[in-house]
Each structure stands twice: as structure tokens, then as C-alpha cells.
Amino acid sequence: MPPTGNVNSRRSRWVGNLIVLAVVAVIAIVVRTYVVQTFYIPSGSMEQTLLINDQVVVNKGVYRFRDPDRGEIVVFRPPVAWSAAPDEDYIKRVIGVGGDHVMCCDDRHRVTVNGAALDEDYLFPGDVPSVSPFDVTVPGGCLFVMGDHRSASADSRAHLNAGNGTVPVDRVVGRAFVTSWPLSRWRSLSVPATFAAVPDPH
Q: Among the options 9, 12, 43, 45, which is catalytic?
């Protein structure tokens, strides 16, 4: 019969290991729920910026302190009027925020925001900014979003009859800030320079 001390020591190590695993699991759940989460790209609506089966890391905490900005790529749950599955995740680029006047197109067939034309060098090769015209003033607390692959994106333009196609900020899950997989595609998802020239709405 083994000494009682050895049994107690092994039991203590097992209990200690279980506690460590439980703490790690809780931390992982908290991080995934409130801080960062990885999402994979299921469609071509953001090509060539994001390709099918790319994985992006999403900051889920940043919008607890501020609203999304123009040019950022956001993951959101679509308004109910957009989809039969409103809990699925969409990923698009923010073109306009609350108060912005977003329209297409100017005389050079560009999208404008508050009168400033966007030079969208991130668009899918061969795509135009939009085949269909639109003219929207974004309500407060909402976003006007578009995919970078405009000819393959069911974005705000496809839902103009539902709240002018805008997405409430409280439907946003977080900001995609880096492509993490495959490793050959790793890069940060920064805001294109063209958005710096957009003035605030009058």
C-alpha cells in the first residue's frame, strides 16, 4: 500500500492542473467573446482585399469606446430585412457613417461622401464603383457599407428599400484589422488614404 503522502501529492497535482485548465478555458472564452476572434471569409464580396477562405482577426472591443470610422472593414450581423438568417456574419467596408451624404456617381463615376470623391484603388480589378446609382444620407447611429468586389457584393446598395440600406452600429461585431491565414496572405487591414480627405457632414 503506497504511503498516504504520495497519494495526496498526486491528487493535489491533478487538482492543480484541473484548476489551471479551467482558468485557461475561462480566459479563452472571455477573450473570444469580448476582445478578439478569428473569422473566415466565405464569399468573394471583399476580393481582392480578402479572398475566399482567408481568415481575419477581428477586434471586438474597439467599438465599445468609439464608433466605426469610414474605410474600416467591419464584421456585422445584418439587419433582419437583409437576410433570412440575421445571426450570420457579414464583412464589408464602411463607406459612410451617421450624418454622411453618400452617393454615386459623380461625373467621373466615383462614389462621393459629403461631396468628396473616393479614389478606390482597393476595388476588384475591372469593377466600377457601382453600376446602380444611389443617394443616401446615413442616419445617426448607422453605417453605409459596401464590398470591395462591387459586382459580387449584396451590400447597402442591394437593400436601399430597407432603411436606405444602412446597418445599425449596434449590429457590428468588431473591426477586422489583420489577415492572419494563410500565412502568405498575412497583412494589416489599414484604412485607405482616400478616406482622410472626406470632410465631416455639414
A: 45
pTM of the predicted model as reported, rounded to 2 decimal places:
0.84
Q: Which of 60, 92, 130, 153 is catalytic?
A: 92
Contact 148, 41 (CB under 8 A): no
pLDDT digits 0-9 by tens, 109-135: 999 999 999 999 999 999 999 999 999
Active site residue 45: yes
The edge-to-edge listing of strands for the beta sheet with 134-137 is 116-117, 111-113, 101-104, 134-137
Considering the four listed CATH numbers 2.10.109.10, 1.10.540.10, 1.20.120.450, 3.40.920.10, the one that applies to the domain covering 38-197 is 2.10.109.10
